[in-house]
Design the sequence.
């Protein structure tokens, strides 16, 4: 089933060595935030390297609906003329965030402390996902939310006319919830405090400081305490969006499992809140060289030289690493299928509320490809079959989930028989050039 429009079946088959340079697109998390923070600043924010995937385009459209002027000047080059903190106007129509949990949750936070009303919806995947995790803390500011049962979209949020600042300890490790609370706190007087037990991606904190907000982070016995001073005037910025480490994961993992491969993936973020997959792959015995470390767009990055790794071993992934690699478990489970021994992924129940139930989607698809898996609510265990050992020869259901689609297409590149996916169209949400980029490296991926 596709989100909007026609399903696009795709297939991949055993390929010769992958070679060349894989320039992956801009980071999705930073792209959403550059548009939203730009809309909250007074004046013109300039963005380069913006990811032009559907999720981000939906956020750009939403920012226009709330009154910002958002203009595309060329590939990845955009400007945003913001309306200032508290300056959002009431949208005339429903805000459709498509497939994007990040888009809808961050935008709900941003409008929740302004006295306007907005109704949000999304595609069939997004309409199944829980919004209560965001609307619960937003109600503490004085906002009200009316959605379907279980806090599902479509949902109307009535922003608080007289917001009060909040102190909120995150019940789940979620950068989206943390960011929604911080964005709401921007238009509340006084100090809004968010406490997270495990650190999650910190792009909102870094960018808020860059846009001129007063924010401090302290490590305490309770965890990380983030304090934001409300009602700042945000200054417009020039944002150079670094490449997305979550997209880089696909060519990297493909090169590790396809015999003879040797590729270069430049500018991959080494931000400690995003690099868990890369630490894990190295522990498994992956041949990855981290070359030319430097800073780009305010993020630590390196160029990754990745070679086929025929002697990877299954490991126990430390559960506390989960927030720093939460989007990478699907493709890690594919690498695990080509390693020797068991890879144990515990503490991963958040995967059940992503674009699809990713534990279930990966378990069913890998089983269909002939791989033994075990799962429970919070765990996925993959029994490796060694290099080239996955039988394949199955069609896997993607459940409107881009990362599930790309993971199984990677799986097919080293399997004995081709692997198909029922719908590759969701790949457009985060990695519109995936097919072209992978084919350029020598991957045999086709439509139909
Ligand atoms: C994101 C946070 C993560 C991640 C998503 C992007 C963000 O979600 O899965 O792809 O940009 O803040 P959660 O906050 O729900 O863990």
Sequence:
């Amino acid at each position: 089933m596709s989100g909007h429009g026609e399903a696009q079946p795709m297939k991949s088959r055993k390929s010769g060595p992958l070679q060349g340079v894989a320039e992956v697109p801009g980071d999705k998390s930073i792209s959403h935030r550059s548009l939203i923070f730009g809309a909250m600043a007074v004046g013109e924010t300039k963005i380069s390297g913006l990811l032009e995937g559907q999720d981000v385009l939906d956020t750009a459209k939403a920012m226009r609906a709330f009154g910002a002027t958002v203009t595309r000047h060329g590939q990845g080059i955009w400007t945003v003329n913001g309306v200032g903190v508290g300056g959002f106007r009431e949208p005339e129509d429903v805000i459709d965030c498509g497939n994007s949990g990040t888009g809808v949750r961050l935008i709900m936070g941003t409008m929740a402390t302004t006295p306007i009303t907005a109704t949000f919806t999304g595609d069939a995947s997004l309409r199944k996902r829980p919004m209560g995790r965001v609307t619960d803390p937003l109600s503490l500011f004085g906002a009200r939310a009316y959605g379907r049962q279980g806090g599902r979209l479509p949902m109307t949020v009535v922003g608080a006319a007289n917001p009060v600042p909040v102190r909120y300890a995150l019940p789940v490790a979620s950068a989206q919830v943390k960011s929604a609370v911080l964005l709401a706190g921007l238009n509340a007087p006084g100090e809004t405090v968010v406490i997270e037990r495990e650190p999650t991606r910190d792009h909102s904190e870094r960018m808020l400081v860059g846009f001129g907000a007063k924010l401090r982070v302290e490590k305490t016995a309770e965890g990380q305490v983030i304090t934001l001073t409300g009602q700042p005037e945000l200054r417009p910025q020039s944002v150079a969006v670094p490449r997305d480490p979550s997209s880089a994961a696909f060519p990297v993992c493909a090169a590790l499992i396809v015999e003879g491969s040797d590729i270069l993936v430049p500018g991959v973020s080494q931000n400690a809140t995003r690099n868990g997959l890369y630490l894990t792959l190295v522990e498994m015995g992956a041949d990855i060289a981290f070359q030319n470390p430097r800073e780009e767009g305010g993020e630590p990055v390196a160029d990754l030289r990745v070679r086929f790794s025929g002697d990877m071993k299954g490991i126990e992934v430390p559960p506390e690493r989960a927030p720093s690699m939460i989007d990478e478990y699907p493709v890690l489970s594919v690498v695990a299928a080509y390693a020797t021994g068991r890879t144990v992924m515990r503490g991963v129940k958040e995967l059940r509320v992503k674009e699809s139930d990713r534990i279930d989607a990966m378990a069913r698809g890998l089983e269909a490809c002939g791989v033994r898996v075990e799962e429970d609510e919070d765990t996925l265990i993959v029994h490796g079959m060694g290099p080239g050992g996955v039988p394949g020869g199955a069609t896997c259901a993607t459940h409107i989930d881009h990362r599930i689609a790309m993971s199984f297409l990677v799986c097919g590149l080293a399997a004995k028989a081709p692997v198909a996916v029922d719908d590759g169209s969701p790949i457009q949400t985060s990695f519109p050039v995936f097919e072209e980029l992978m084919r350029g490296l020598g991957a045999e991926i086709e439509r139909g």
Q: What stands out?
A: Residues 28-40 form the longest helix (13 residues).
